[in-house]
Amino acid sequence: MTIMDLPMAPGAGAGQQEQDLVLEVRDVRVRFPMVRDWRGRVAQSAHALNGIDLRIRRGEAFGIVGESGCGKSTLAQVLMGLLPPTEGEVRRQPRGDGRPANVQIVFQDPQSSLDPRLPAWKVIVEPVVVRGRRAAPGRDSRSGRAALRACAAELAVQVGLRPETLDRYVHEFSGGQRQRIAIARALSSDPDVIVLDEPTSALDISVQAQILNLLQDLRGRHGLTYVLISHNVSVVRHLCDRVAVMYLGQIVEQGTAAAVLETPRHPYTRELLDAVPRLDRPWTDGAPAEPVELPGNRVLPAGCFFRERCPWARQGCERPQPLLCDADAPQHLFRCHVAQK
User: Cys staple from 207: which of 60, 104, 176, 242, with CB 3.0 to 4.6 Å?
Assistant: First the structure.
């Protein structure tokens, strides 16, 4: 089983935290066949995701960070249902009407993810037409077109675009405006969760701030849940409530944004944060100064995945590392027996 729907939320007596879940990822693994033998059987695979477990609550902004190649975008495709996991499952909590949670996505590059053949207003309402969830009034095609056009204009105002510009094509807008169109498009089908896959990485710094503030406003206005996938720690710090750090297809640290980004426990998280320029005192307690390339994922390392790069490696790191926590911080998880001590 790959993607399934959770049963209806139980009544009184069930934990509030369980009822607040909107997405649950259980031991998800994704492998891509790379080499086949003469019989066509898979002889070697790329291990993109290696046992991902996530519980995302309704209304929160959940950040996923890591360097390029760690599996962030693969996880985004799994959450969207675009890529079935090799093992494990993704469960979507039902909405109030009994239908499973609606998950939409905003891609990194709106220039390549939006249809260049359509005017902007048709791009915005395309999910409505495809899903057929908001039927046009009456049988007259002009009435249906007018309703869709009105829907596009309403969404354009919400994301900061002038409705009179919606007859233009995507290439006639600036990068920031194109991303606003992409956000309006994601909103058009009344989503519960929006996956934001590097939504600001292709934009100028000043435009990034505008888009992030817009996302904050829309989250409060519509009660949205965000899954922000990014390598930019500053963006995650600005937008997210909780954060998971990925390394080689595995979550190595997870907790509140304040805990993970201000008091990291896993050596890889410290190395990742040490690479971010900061005005205050950086982490200097032994983190390697020279960046090291992410190892290949065709043959996974034995034991701790980070062991060969870790300056604090010691006896015990050759064994697989479960997610651990301290008694005084049970919500802050880290995959490192040295950090627990």
Answer: 176
